[in-house]
Amino acid sequence: MSSPNTKKKEIVIVGAGIVGVCTAYYITRHPKFSPETHHITILEARRPASGASGKAGGLLAMWAFPQQIVPLSFQLHQELAEEYNGAIEWGYRGLKTLCIEGDVSPTNLRNIANQKTPKKPAVDLPEDLNWINTAIIDGWAHLGGADSTAQVHPYKFTLFILKKVLETGAVDLISGKATEVVTNDTGEAVGVKYTTFIDKQNSATRAASAGKKAPPSRKLQTPSSPTMNKSSLHHPDNPTFNNQTQKPNPIQQPSSNISIPESSDSSLSNKPTITTSGIHSHPHNSSTNTNDNYNNSDSYIDNSDLTTSSSVKSESSISTENSSNIFTDDDQRSLDESITKEPNDDESDNTISLEEQPAPTESTPVEEADKPDDGLKYLGGDQIVLTLGPWTSKILPSCPISGLRAHSITIQPSKLVSPFALFTEMRTSRTSYVSPEIYPRKDEVYVCGEGDTAAGVPESTDDVEVLRDRCDELFKNVGYISPQLKNGRILKRQACYLPVVDVPSHSGPFIGNTNVENLYLASGHSCWGINNAPGTGLLMAELLLDGEATSASLDGLEPEFYFDASSSEIPGDETPIM
């Protein structure tokens, strides 16, 4: 940390997901940044990339939104991959991307099995897409090639970039759950309060093992989410999210100190949307668990054109041990040494195991002067950046961001699978459809499903509720599409939250200044957080160090035009949060 006698500009980033990590990365690469004059502290409640950044599909596409930053971010992904050998380190590669439509209704499947289906023109799929059951396919469309669509393994990407950030020696990663933004007498943000997070097993799993009903999670109180198409969120024609932003008048001068509820982390799932009939979600009231597997892959991903099953560990080993090989033992030791540690006053175990992934540990706050005497720790900063995704409203109650949960699985296929990202629209009856989204990786196949709002955003990423039946239904549905997936096996069941902006004229994200001086926000990226993280990080770095973003326009994305960050009132609720 910076010396108390050294005047350094302190930048505090709350949240070590992909957006927070990319923001830190591009700050350290900015021409005006110097370790002699600047210092960055990343405050993370649980583990880096333990939410959406570790459980997303990793699709990159030029049709993403908002269009004013997509080309920049897509290009930055390419540049990072070239600089750091991303094909090996985090599975960067261009993809062919298709939308396929078909019929997997019981009647059609039975007719196919009995060879009673009427003759129809053959569906001429690409020759190298040889793992699809063509009998169920009614049609397809080409959405993009390697020049306009690509993929990364987001968990590996985030941790790799984080490692580069910590190697600068100008960044500290500390463990703490932000509870409040602290402002001075003139209403300027000067720091955050935070609590240390005891690393415990999630309450749902513990309660289940004890034969008790788990206590309900505290649901995020935000305005109702817009009605969402339950089909693929990333499809270019998805009507739910548009690229139109209408810039309202800015919020006026903030009031007094901000009173903030609790902050946490979550998951984010990347999922495209098909432009056919509306999808009907299926109720699931089955057994549940939580996201307690932090490893998101089991071997390096390279630029191979085939996904194989030989390099994937057994299901039992995946569920019980760390299998993320992004760092060698030497790398882990080096990273451990980069993390500042503070002697614990109460000797409580506040560290997060590096055996699972690089993690923050408790650290001395930047400023001890004027430390609030309320039992909370204080981290002072000249600029405060919130990169909390769907947990933003827990820190800023007035911020119109809510969470949309999406389930996903990874599958070990039975045979080789060529690299095609598939957005599907499958008829299951005369009036219902499912739209599983399929992303082959080198050593597994990632599949995600429809979003739901049945469970509010929980207190931490460890408490995200995973419905086993939803995951099993994903496996069943993609089994109709591909024999290689049907005969494969599930490696991982998980769920994450998309941070959705609840503003009719704005699809998100929020990037830039709030109406509280020195308080910035980069959140609400919905299904395009992985795609837009590098661009967001670069623009935030310019804003923080230059005073304006110059690489792309932020017009219509600035949070100061959409809500009062100084308010402790929940939108639609006249009662302030105490």
From TrEMBL:
A GO BP annotation: retrograde transport, endosome to Golgi
Signal peptide start and end residues: none
Basic and acidic residues biased stretches: 330-343
UniProt feature coiled coil, ranges: none
Residue stretches of biased makeup (Polar residues): 219-231, 350-364
Record GO cellular component, one term: cytosol
Record field: transmembrane: 12-28
Ranges of compositional bias, category Low complexity: 248-270, 285-325
Superkingdom classification of source: Eukaryota
Stretch list, region Disordered: 203-376
Domain FAD dependent oxidoreductase: 11-192, 363-543
UniProtKB keywords: Membrane, Transmembrane, Transmembrane helix
InterPro entries: FAD-dep_OxRdtase, FAD/NAD-bd_sf
PANTHER family referenced in this protein's UniProt entry, alphabetically: OXIDOREDUCTASE TDA3-RELATED (PTHR13847:SF150), SARCOSINE DEHYDROGENASE-RELATED (PTHR13847)
Protein's name according to its UniProt entry: Similar to Saccharomyces cerevisiae YHR009C TDA3 Putative oxidoreductase involved in late endosome to Golgi transport
Organism listed in the record: Geotrichum candidum
Organism ancestry: Eukaryota, Fungi, Dikarya, Ascomycota, Saccharomycotina
